[in-house]
Amino acid sequence: MKILAIESSCDETAAAVVEDGTRVLSSVVASQVAVHHVYGGVVPELASRKHVEAIVPVVREAIETAGIDRSELDAVAVTQGPGLVGALLVGFSYAKAFAWGLGIPCVGVNHLEGHMSSIFLGDNPPSFPYVALLVSGGHTSLYYVTGPTEYELMGQTRDDAVGEAYDKVSKMLGLGYPGGVVIDGLAGKGDPKAISFPRPYLDKKAFDFSFSGLKSAVGRHLKEFPEPDEERLRNIAAGFQESVAEVLCHKLMYAAKVKGCRHVAVVGGVAANSRVRDMVAKAASRRGLSFHTPELKYCGDNAAMIGAIGYHRFMEGSTLGLNDDAYSRARLPSNTKHK
Ligand code: KG4
Ligand code: ZN
Fold first, then answer.
1. For range 101-111, the mean pLDDT
2. Per UniProt, where does Fe cation bind (predicted)?
3. What is the mean pLDDT of residues 234-245?
4. If you measure from the C-alpha of residue 136 to the centroid of ligand 1, how many angstroms do you get, rounded to a whole number?
């Protein structure tokens, strides 16, 4: 079955056509990074306006690239939340109207479940059960996953999400928004041992995270060296990234051990991080675990992942009515088994 998927929860307007929840026939992402870059973060009102401009051409391109006629679509899936509510409403209202116009069902999905499902888009999906680390701009959580829509939350951040910490550190270093890719690039040229930042484990045997202290440690270092030269900038980036990667990797491996899982996954925008990917891949291989992470294009926000989870939600019979609304705060859908 073919699903048109739409995503507009933050600063990317995206549409995709996905077959049976795994085969991506098209995936179009219109990024607003250039618009928000000058403000050092996403400006919600600007995001909504840009979504309004982009939604029609992005959906048209997704259907054209898939090489199908819209009459061949079986359903529409759309991000219902969490996210910026003005931004969400653009994709959400459009999706409901589009589906209604075609006389096909519309499924509302949770953005986080979209990220979780992104690993099923490639040709190396994990088998159940597995432990997944969801690391994005808004979330840092560890889940024990027993089925396509069955997650047990094992731990989450108590303060900043890891992507948020990257963005804030980038701002402190004067490197702009979004910070993840820039710091990742700089870190690759620095020495991770030159400046040692703390490893915020909280408790090595617990699954919650905390990144605000690490961010403050970078701030304190910058007070001591207020005008870092290029070499120091690289070393700060490398030291910060090493600390993040070690903590994420440790907690993921420990979670797999506690649950007796043979498969681990990392998903979300920060799953694109080169050091996290590398460190987790090596740690998993040493322990004989299989490691799964999406292709880079499906780590950050995209609509293909919305089509992947939309398929499962549709099969479960969950469809939207025209009166249903978007939601801004994180919430797991009511039929998610959340022990
Ligand atoms: O999943 P995502 O696109 O959006 C949310 O749902 O939040 O994640 C965006 C986050 C941003 O904070 C961005 O800085 C971070 O992912 N990010 C990275 C990298 N690429 C994106 N963080 C570290 N290294 C990267 N290569
Ligand atoms: Zn996201």
1. 97
2. 111, 115, 301
3. 98
4. 5
